[in-house]
Write a structure and sequence with these properties.
- This protein is mostly helical.
- The chain is 70% helix and 0% strand.
- It is built from 16 helices and no strands.
- Helix 1 runs antiparallel to helix 8.
- It is globular and about 60 Å long.
């Protein structure tokens, strides 16, 4: 733990200067994470080129995708605790720099093994981003504003999906480069974002001469027993893990998040395959499919921003209600998407709503972490939650690939997403607080 010594007289944090600093930290974390997905959500756009060059099956590609997701899950379980121990600023920057390098290594792949090994390593390095950034934000924002703050933070992640989709389309369709450049050019933005974040962000208010922010603990009095003690900075890693893993509501929320993320990655990885398969250019004259796919991450970004507000303002920080509402609507819109022809002009609106409702609850899920355990264990809790989310997503990827190999019907993606959304909503009911 950083033992920085601060001046005896710290500035009051009920001032415009502190408010400005709060927003600067939020925007710094958002800016950095805006580029993180260029390092892991571009794989779907590379699949057609990889299949054409190496002749790999959809199931094999599903395992490659799963390797990254599982390594990411393991990394989350480790790196969230590291953020609590060492702070999020350095760790998040390190992740951006090293993930950029891992993507470049992937771009020189010559077959299955040379794809899966560096892509899995990249998954771990990507896990150096989200939980450390969340830990930093929990130091700067109080419980009453968490829904809004995590809504903005997840909005940045949704915009990152848009950016990863757009940059991949630019590489393939505008620059007419082969699939390898998908792993080379977009990630340079992540490298720049990570470096800038390091110079702009500060770990806690005291680093800028302000008093520690009050009310960064749990949201409800009934959860006080789960909150870290005043000397939680002295906790060992093992003590933090034990405290978090004993929190039953957090574990239930992690399972619900797992189903939500399985639905989300089912869309992220396989929607480009559904719309941009090898024969997509021979369509029936409808809207260009590459632009239909952009509707998905745009919807995700908007949904994330809205759900945090809904959980704070409409449901009084009862996050489970916002989660259940959006997941139920996500199931319905995914069913609608399943019923539409691939070149339907309605696909843009349907896919936007799929992304809006399926990804939106992420804001409430992440706000639950400090809500349930307090800010001093927020990194560890976020890591444990994200471990579950990517464990489930990784399990779904080979399953989806196998189904597509067996049926040849890519629209079944949406039926799988529907089932995952229903499961997430059902489990979220037990997070009732």
């Amino acid at each position: 733990m950083d033992r920085t010594h601060y001046p005896a007289a710290l500035a009051d944090n009920n001032t415009p200067a502190f408010r400005k600093a709060q927003w600067r930290m939020l925007f710094a974390a958002m800016f950095c994470y805006l580029f993180f997905y260029t390092g892991r959500q571009t794989f779907g756009f590379a699949i057609p080129g990889i299949q054409a060059e190496f002749g790999l099956s959809s199931a094999s590609l599903g395992w490659i995708s799963a390797s990254m997701l599982w390594a990411y899950a393991i990394g989350q379980a480790i790196n969230g605790n590291l953020a609590d121990k060492y702070g999020g600023r350095k760790i998040m920057t390190t992740g951006a720099v090293l993930s950029c390098g891992a993507n470049w290594i992937v771009s020189f792949a010559s077959g299955f093994m040379s794809l899966i090994i560096p892509w899995a390593a990249n998954g771990y390095l990507q896990a150096l981003g989200w939980a450390p950034g969340s830990r930093l934000l929990s130091n700067w924002w109080s419980a009453s504003e968490r829904g809004k703050v995590y809504g903005f933070y997840v909005f940045a992640a949704g915009c990152a999906s848009i950016l990863s989709y757009v940059t991949s389309v630019v590489v393939i369709e505008v620059l007419h480069l082969e699939w390898r450049w998908i792993f080379r050019l977009p990630v340079l933005l992540m490298l720049a974002g990570g470096i800038l974040f390091y110079f702009i962000a500060r770990e806690r208010p005291e680093d800028l001469g302000f008093k520690p922010l009050e009310n960064t603990g749990v949201a409800n009095e009934e959860d006080k027993a789960q909150e870290a003690a005043d000397n939680a900075d002295e906790e060992t890693s093992l003590q933090r893990y034990k405290a978090v893993l004993k929190n039953a509501k957090l574990i239930i929320a992690a399972v619900s998040l797992g189903f939500q993320n399985a639905a989300r990655y089912g869309l992220i990885i396989w929607v480009p395959v559904h719309f941009l398969g090898s024969d997509w250019k021979t369509g029936d004259g409808g809207i260009d499919p590459k632009w239909i796919t952009i509707a998905l991450p745009v919807g995700m970004a908007a949904g994330a921003l809205s759900n945090g507000w809904v959980s704070d303002k409409l449901f009084g920080s009862k996050r489970y209600l916002a989660i259940m509402l959006y997941m139920a609507l996500g199931a319905l819109t995914s069913l609608w998407m399943w019923s539409l022809p691939i070149h339907s002009t309605m696909a843009i609106g349907a896919l936007f709503l799929c992304g809006f409702f399926v990804y939106g609850p992420a804001s409430s899920f992440w706000a639950l972490c400090p809500d349930l355990v307090g800010s001093k264990r927020a990194g560890t809790a976020t890591g444990v939650m994200n471990f579950s989310s990517y464990l489930f997503a990784g399990l779904a990827e080979p399953l989806i690939g196998k189904i597509l190999d067996h049926t040849g019907n890519t629209s079944l993606i949406f039926m799988i997403v529907t089932i995952a959304c229903v499961c997430s909503a059902a489990v979220a009911l037990f997070v009732r607080r």
